[in-house]
Amino acid sequence: MGIGEVIRPLKNSLDGVPVHVRQLAEMFRKHGQRQGDNTARVTDLDATDVPEALRNGWKGDWTPSDVVKVPQGQRPHPSEYLDAEYIRQHLDQFSDGATRIYKKPSLDGYGPGNNSGPDGRNTTYVFPTDKLGDVIRAADGDPVKLSDALGLPKDFFVGAEVELRDFAPHELDGLTVPTGNEGGTDLEKWIPGGYLPSGIPEAVIDIPETATGLNNGGFDPSYWPGTPRHFEL
Predict the structure, then answer these.
(1) Which domain of life is it from (predicted)?
(2) If I label 77, which of 27, 117, 123, 125 is the partner at 20 to 30 A Cα–Cα?
């Protein structure tokens, strides 16, 4: 039996299942097209490692659904279900720095972080600077394409004034694979393992609580971590 014969019934049976499972299935379908030797793991969707970088990353019997079914605020640390080597390699993608793209009114109003989650950390999601650059170039000035690639509503950047903020390697305090407990996590689209549904790697870093904006007690970007970079859509 070919891998396509195994995957198609799985994919077609996903109507009505949670959104994150459908996203995992779609990524696995694309992965399966490239990995014809992985048929032994196809029969159990949750046992497969998707996207491709997660192929050998899971510990023991952990599955993506095991993680996402845990309520936000109680989800385990990635070290509990991902191999240490996978985590190291994932975070190595940020060795040259990280970047976040902000809507400027939100950045000015609240600062570069202020996504305090249940664990009390003040964090922000970031992408490897080079990978985000690839996404921006591929979008070619189309705000809908950019929003879609970053897992945001299609109109998120339409008509928006945006700003990039680059974080140098020494500014990546607390760099970790996201737990899914962080403030600002999209509960419908979050996937364990540090990737967006589109396959773009992500991580979170700590932002000082003093890095605030006009709406929450201060506004002095010279004290914020990161360096602003002008960007127009």
Answers:
(1) Bacteria
(2) 27
